[in-house]
């Protein structure tokens, strides 16, 4: 493990821990960033517990900064910090700290898009380009949202705490969105290795914590089921050479049966509650994919019809078109894609290219692959698209 890996694995945990100690998210983030800069200068080998080293160093930097301040609030914050133990608890699965950070950033006083963007930055350690890809918007837009959200938290004095029980439902939707997008970035990273196991594991861990906190919320169970059923297929996503393997071609014997069993049980629990929601429907789709030796595509299409009626987004429409192709053929699916507008998202032209290939329209398929290659940012996905394009002859 190198410093970059430590940053990705520990950044969110360290910020959450420092935010609890300081009660100030901005100061916590700055102190953690300073600590990583110090680590870059001082570490010749990794310490036994890199996360604890970062927290200790960040805490000391924060104390130094507060001592330079002259306000009463700064002196009070310094006194609280000095009352903490010299050695913070080991940075590992710090459940309460991270949930507290999520709920603070998802305060209803913040704009919805700003909530999730800020939380992905602080909790997941995602960079602005990665968050922009999740939202399919410009990087400058995401940067502005994060700045405005931090300013709002500071100016409105939003407390750093898990909200009271009656406040939880209002904050739940953005919390679920954060965990969903966090897992998605881990499962199909913007750049670097295709799969970031640290992000996937953290999103699943936090989803489990949320399910323990809110066990009667079917959408929480639905999200957890979706993440588990998707994670169950991870070992089959790449072949021995590191090349991408699509779902239809995956070796199902490599799938995790314990995760599939757990995910299916959660889906059944959701069905018994009879309060369907988007995450539950997506989990049901994943359950169909992982049930038996082949996917029941008509059932998948019926579920996508239900999902599209509930959340009529372009991404859902794109995924539904894939199911249409499996049930009714590529021509109707291509017609469905004509109604989808997803600028900047490589999977739209990539899907169009695949459908055109199946229709024997090679020249158009080649042009669609060119469009997808111009947009894709992950090298593993790029290599897959190049291979498909080369296969056109």
Automatic annotation (TrEMBL):
Keywords: Sigma factor, Transcription, Transcription regulation. InterPro entries: DUF6596, RNA_pol_sigma-70_dom, RNA_pol_sigma70_r2, RNA_pol_sigma70_r4_t2, RNA_pol_sigma_r2, RNA_pol_sigma_r3/r4-like, TPR-like_helical_dom_sf, WH-like_DNA-bd_sf. GO terms for biological process: DNA-templated transcription initiation. Pfam families: DUF6596 (PF20239), Sigma70_r2 (PF04542), Sigma70_r4_2 (PF08281). Residues 171-270 form the DUF6596 domain. Residues 102-153 form the RNA polymerase sigma factor 70 region 4 type domain. Residues 7-70 form the RNA polymerase sigma-70 region domain. It comes from the Bacteria. One of its GO terms (molecular function) is DNA binding. NCBIfam families: sigma70-ECF (TIGR02937). Belongs to the sigma-70 factor family. ECF subfamily. This is RNA polymerase subunit sigma-24. The gene is rpoE_27.
